[in-house]
Amino acid sequence: MMPSVSHKCGTQNFRYLVIIDSDLEDSFNAIMEARDYILIAGSEVHAAEMREMLHEMNIPNGDAAVKILDDKNLTNFERFALLREFLIKSPQYLVIIDSDLEDSFNAIMEARDYILIAGSEVHAAEMREMLHEMNIPNGDAAVKILDDKNLTNFERFALLREFIPAEVDLPTRLPTGFVFAPCPHDQGCPKLSSKNGSVCKFSTRWREIRADGKVGKRRDGTAIGSFAYVIMQKGIREPVENLACLLQVVHSDKHLTCTVCTPFIGIQRFTISKRAGPIYQSVKARKPGQLLPVTIKPVASESQFDVYEEAIKGFEKSAP
């Protein structure tokens, strides 16, 4: 009976589990056994998966977390509580999801911009104290950068970052972060700057479970909708090849019409013919929200056919 309770609770991802039985003593004892089993099993950490999580998250003091995982003197609950502290204090990602309404999207973008801006605003007094305590070379130059009123907050942050070791965080108003998804950049949202103003939204489908037991509008028992979201990651964006995010792809006869968000040239729309071969096939397999598998490079030319041929040849050479 116990494994059955655990299985249902785990796979269905319920927030609440209600167990009701008669008032007989055996029934009450069975309920208490189920209760204790859930409490105990909920604090038993799976060692292999925990090691993998610690490795992927690359949290500070990860070695200390591994020692806690290997400490045989700790009870399961003590081990669970200590490891949980590491994960709570070292969140790598912040996920914000809301509806596809314009007001919701604007609120998400405001939160995104606030995190980006506050993450580069250096606290002057704490920064001076850090420079004094660390006694770094060329500390006077760092102080001049700190006092330079002609620099923007981000310019000041970037210049000071070069003086401080990478493993040391600068004292900023908020922990420094960047956009992990869906934006391939930390620039202003081009959808907000456009005259028409549209929402960056993504479609989804889910299995509809109704409390009244009635069947939904769709025969397959699913519902469809769309949402807006942003995922922020703690840290500094690493320099990577400028890839665009695929916002929309329309499949037509022997060609694709793509709408993408780019790091520096805003929203771009273009058509990919089936004759493009590997480019067409790679883009066709992608869904909205994923990165475009090819790099967009503006090219000046009087003949679009020359550009097309050069692009195809370049892609074929770089393709594995």
TrEMBL record:
<dbReference type="GO" id="GO:0051536">
    <property type="term" value="F:iron-sulfur cluster binding"/>
</dbReference>
<dbReference type="Pfam" id="PF09243">
    <property type="entry name" value="Rsm22"/>
</dbReference>
<protein>
    <submittedName>
        <fullName>Response regulatory domain-containing protein</fullName>
    </submittedName>
</protein>
<keyword id="KW-0479">Metal-binding</keyword>
<dbReference type="GO" id="GO:0005763">
    <property type="term" value="C:mitochondrial small ribosomal subunit"/>
</dbReference>
<dbReference type="GO" id="GO:0006412">
    <property type="term" value="P:translation"/>
</dbReference>
<keyword id="KW-0411">Iron-sulfur</keyword>
<comment type="function">
    <text>Mitochondrial ribosome (mitoribosome) assembly factor. Binds at the interface of the head and body domains of the mitochondrial small ribosomal subunit (mt-SSU), occluding the mRNA channel and preventing compaction of the head domain towards the body. Probable inactive methyltransferase: retains the characteristic folding and ability to bind S-adenosyl-L-methionine, but it probably lost its methyltransferase activity.</text>
</comment>
<dbReference type="GO" id="GO:0003735">
    <property type="term" value="F:structural constituent of ribosome"/>
</dbReference>
<dbReference type="GO" id="GO:0046872">
    <property type="term" value="F:metal ion binding"/>
</dbReference>
<keyword id="KW-0809">Transit peptide</keyword>
<keyword id="KW-0408">Iron</keyword>
<dbReference type="InterPro" id="IPR015324">
    <property type="entry name" value="Ribosomal_Rsm22-like"/>
</dbReference>
<keyword id="KW-0496">Mitochondrion</keyword>
<dbReference type="InterPro" id="IPR052571">
    <property type="entry name" value="Mt_RNA_Methyltransferase"/>
</dbReference>
<dbReference type="GO" id="GO:0008168">
    <property type="term" value="F:methyltransferase activity"/>
</dbReference>
